[in-house]
Write a structure and sequence with these properties.
three-stranded antiparallel sheet, alpha+beta
Length: 213
């Protein structure tokens, strides 16, 4: 999948990475041109050690996101493609591809009316409620993980997703688990015991507060 790697930009076969559009604690996101000249966002995991927690979280993220995409789960930005090499390396990292979407705050524009912000997060709340009904919690709810795509408000970035059969080892020992500035208090002190669904509600409330302010 990987042809070669330059100093700053991975070269992924079938995806021409154009410009870096985001960066998180464990991965970088690039806007790219994919098959059929389609514009996509490619998230490239920085760690190449398969035994590390961040790699195992990425494996779970891809697995759960793919399952939601196969079901055409409403309100979820679809997963288009991915690679999870058994022996990852700088030349062959783990990655996933999604459609390019407009981040919520950019889609709302500067100083949006309160009604527009409420309507956007109400749509996100509906998606979260359906995920919670299936014992799935996002645990990373913040404006930066919500998008406008094909006329709908959607959520993505499932790196911290909690499932009914979640690996305890991916939570135990964590000092904090959740979005900075939007994290629920219980996720700061006891993430291994916290209810991810309730934490989502708290984070969604903080997101609305931030947009309203």
């Amino acid at each position: 999948i990987i042809a070669s790697v330059s100093k700053n930009r991975p070269l992924i076969k079938a995806y021409d990475l154009q410009v870096q559009i985001g960066s998180g604690g464990n991965a970088d996101v690039w806007e790219a041109i994919g098959p059929g000249n389609r514009r996509v966002a490619v998230k490239v995991l920085r760690t190449v050690h398969a035994n590390r927690e961040s790699y195992r979280r990425f494996q779970r993220e891809v697995r759960e996101h793919e399952l939601l995409t196969k079901r055409a789960f409403p309100g979820v930005l679809p997963l288009l493609d991915h690679r999870l090499p058994e022996e990852a390396s700088v030349q062959d990292p783990a990655w996933l591809a999604m459609p390019v979407a407009v981040e919520l705050t950019k889609a709302l524009g500067d100083e949006p009316p309160l009604e527009a912000a409420v309507a956007a997060l109400a749509a996100v709340a509906d998606t979260l409620a359906r995920l919670h009904a299936e014992q799935l919690a996002h645990r990373d709810v913040k404006p930066a993980n919500c998008y406008r795509h094909e006329g709908a408000w959607v959520i993505s970035d499932f790196g911290l997703i909690q499932t009914a059969d979640a690996e305890t080892s991916l939570t135990v020992g964590a000092k904090a688990l959740g979005p900075r500035n939007f994290i629920a208090p219980e996720m700061l002190v006891r993430p291994e015991q916290a209810d991810g669904s309730a934490a989502d509600v708290y984070s969604l409330g903080k997101a609305l507060f931030a947009l309203a302010a």
